[in-house]
Amino acid sequence: MEWRDQGILLSARQHGEASVILDVLTPSLGRHSGVVRGGKSRKFAAALQPGAQLDLMWKARLQEHLGTFQVDLIRSRSAMVMSDRRALSGLGAVTGMLLAFLPERETNAPLFYATEQLLDLLEHAEVWPAAYLRWELGLLEILGFGLDLSACAVTGQTDDLIFISPKTGRAVSRSGAGKWADRLLPLFPVMLGQDNKYPADLPQALEVSGYFFKNHACQSLGINHLPPARSRFLDTLTKTNQ
Amino acid sequence: MSSITVIDALIDQMAKLPGLGPRSARRAVLHLVRKRSLQLIPLANKMQQVAASARECLNCGNIGTSDICGICENESRANGEMCVVEDVADLWAMERTAVFKGRYHVLGGTLSALDAIGPSDLGIPKLMDRITTENISEVILALNVTVDGQTTAHYISEEVGKRVKITSLARGVPIGGELDYLDDGTISAALKARKSF
Fold first, then answer.
1. What is the pTM for the complete model shown?
2. Which residue in A126, A104, A101, A96 sits closest to A197, CA to CA?
3. Chain B: closest CA distance from residue A125 (Å)
4. Are B84 and B180 contained in the same domain?
5. Alpha-carbon Rg for chain A in angstroms
6. Which residues of A touch B116 (CB under 8 A)?
7. Does A89 touch chain B if contact means CB atoms closer than 8 Å?
8. CB < 8 Å to A11, chain B
9. How many whole angstroms separate alpha carbon A133 and alpha carbon A192?
10. Measured between CB atoms, does A39 come within 8 Å of chain B?
11. How far apart are the CA of A109 and the nearest CA of chain B, in angstroms?
12. For a tag on chain A, would you pick the N or C end, based on fewer CB atoms within 10 A?
């Protein structure tokens, strides 16, 4: 068995003394693992950092085997974010979320391209945090827990949407909320794509998306908690916002 | 027969050491057996001594033969500078240069989402205590330039806040490095950190 594709490196775990097991996200095969022999060597040190775009050649005797990768660096992203704590924690959150929620070997090309686009935005500090939120909402949708923010679930109106139902993930307008307003989650304009520049309410909006990951995705996938990297990212956003 | 078993057991044990495999362990053991008085016995004695006395410094996490290591005991090294490293091997690498004259703090790892290593699993609370009790004026973050290493560095700098000056090692072209062979990230980091010549 053999294939060749591009991939975004999600993690590199040490395997034995000299090798590493890579976890990558590819457009045609989804999340995929494989061993890189000699991957701990100095030659690979810069290439095998999370977020790197790699040219991958995977080989195994049988399809279900772990297999081995031959890798070539297309572009590194870690160097551009190393000195920016927000971008670095964001990179950790992206890779952490994909590792936690994505099943292996399930093709999802749109997710790959969305992730690639998001990671390429990392050096644009003013736009990428809002792009991260939209990426998370997209991930929720891919996992089957997408939010429907197009119209009010009660009245059908498309304006004045300021709440989300914690049960259904559908938007609710001010008039539609009525006496249930205190039981609904807030819907921030950034979640509707209305504010692309770094908005002040982004950390709160991420708390809302985190609610759906925690109470819907985690529960149904048997995951105990959200990745710690995401919590650290949220902490960093909150601190840098103050 | 029993002697062969003992030697085989020694080979098996040696083969588990970093950098050695079964074949190189066999060669090493054969060499030791042949040079019994010159190498095997002194090595066995030294290993016994180390096994009896090696311990982690209660202050910085370095490995020495007493509860407090030589660096922490040395009053001349209390110059207000503290170098934070990931591992004892990094501390020893820094000491080999004989350039840094302050004290160290070994974290014992880095924050890692993958391995679920959080701040409480590392020596970060102890570091905060030491900054206060040892009147530290500068913390040098000598952590690996990896995503995990730099995430840890940012976390520490956030925790330490503005109490002390925080610096980190420079990034760029290594001595003997040829630009053609360097990765794009290293070259761009070196270019950003360029200085007057």
1. 0.84
2. A126
3. 16
4. yes
5. 20
6. 228
7. yes
8. 114
9. 10
10. no
11. 24
12. C
Q: pLDDT tens across A40-61, in order?
A: 888 888 889 999 999 999 999 9
Residues B88 and B28 placed together within one structural domain of the fold: no
Which residues neighbour A151 within 8 Å (Cβ) at sequence distance 6 or greater?
A157, A158, A161, A171
Counted domains in chain B: 2
- Would B61 be classed as within a structural domain? no
- Tell whether B148 and B186 lie within a shared domain: yes
Are B81 and B137 members of one domain? yes
Q: Do both B186 and B104 map to the same domain?
A: yes
For A10, nearest residue in chain B (alpha carbons)? B114
Domain range spanning residue B26? 6-53
Contacts of B147 in chain A (CB under 8 A): 49-51, 78, 82, 88, 91-92
**Which residue carries 């095998």 as its tokens?**
A48
Kindly state whether A75 is in contact with chain B, defined as any CB-CB distance less than 8 angstroms: yes
A88:B151 CB<8 A: yes
Q: Are residues B87 and B144 in the same domain?
A: yes
Clarify whether residues B120 and B189 are in a common domain.
Answer: yes
Amino acid at A212: F
A88–B150 C-beta distance less than 8 A: yes
Q: Is A149 in a helix, a strand, or coil?
A: coil
Rounded Cα distance between A216 and B88, Å, is 43
Whether the complex's predicted ipTM is more than 0.90 is answered with no
User: Which CATH number characterizes residue B86's domain?
Assistant: 3.40.1360.10
pLDDT digit string, tens, across residues B51-103: 999 999 999 999 999 999 999 999 999 889 999 999 999 999 999 999 999 99
Asked if the structure places residue B1 within a domain, the reply is: no
B171 and B97: one domain?
yes
Q: How many CB pairs under 8 A join A and B?
A: 64
